[in-house]
Design goal:
Distance between the termini: 77 Å
Largest sheet: 4 strands, antiparallel
Number of strands: 4
Radius of gyration: 21 Å
Shape: elongated
Structural class: alpha+beta
Order of helices and strands: HHHHHEEEE
Strand content: 25-35%
Mean pLDDT: 88
C-alpha cells in the first residue's frame, strides 16, 4: 500500500515558509529605515528632542551640538510658529546608492529616502513642511540624515 506525504509535514513547511516571508518583509532594510524616520518624528511631535537627536547620524551631529539643537527646535516651533505639536505622515521609501549629505562629502553606500510631511496649526495659520529625510546605517543602527547639498 502506497502512502502519501504526511499532512503534518506539509503544514510544518507552510508555517516555516510564512514565518520566513514575514521575517524578510518585517526586517527588510527599507522598512527599518522608515521605522527610524517614524521614531524620529514621533519624538519630535512629543517635544522629546533629546531622543530625536539621539537618532541622528554622526554626520548630522557634526552640524548641531545637542544642547543647541534642543533649544532651537523648541524655540522655533513653539515660540516662532506658535504651535505646540504637529501631525506628520511618511511617504514611500526609495533606496539610493552613493548619496551625499553635502556636495563634497564622502558618499554613503546605501541610504533610504522617505518624504515626510509635517502639518502645523499655529498663530500664523495652518501650514505644512515637506522634507525628504534619509536613513543610513551607522555601526549597525539606522540613523536619520537631512540633505544639505546646494
Amino acid at each position: 500500500m502506497r502512502r502519501g506525504i504526511n499532512p503534518l509535514i506539509i503544514l510544518g513547511l507552510v508555517i516555516i515558509l510564512i514565518v520566513c516571508i514575514t521575517g524578510m518583509v518585517y526586517f527588510s532594510p527599507n522598512r527599518q529605515a522608515k521605522a527610524v524616520v517614524d521614531s524620529f518624528y514621533s519624538y519630535e511631535q512629543q517635544g522629546m528632542f533629546a531622543q530625536s537627536y539621539d537618532l541622528f547620524h554622526p554626520l548630522m551631529k557634526e552640524k548641531f551640538e545637542k544642547g543647541a539643537y534642543l533649544q532651537d527646535r523648541a524655540h522655533v516651533f513653539i515660540n516662532h510658529f506658535g504651535v505646540e505639536t504637529f501631525t506628520y505622515s511618511l511617504g514611500k521609501t526609495d533606496k539610493m546608492k552613493q548619496w551625499q549629505i553635502e556636495k563634497d562629502a564622502e558618499p554613503l553606500g546605501v541610504v533610504y529616502k522617505v518624504t515626510v510631511t509635517q502639518k502645523y496649526k499655529g498663530k500664523y495659520g495652518n501650514f505644512s513642511i515637506v522634507q525628504d529625510v534619509y536613513a543610513a546605517k551607522d555601526d549597525g543602527e539606522w540613523k536619520v540624515l537631512w540633505n544639505y547639498r546646494k
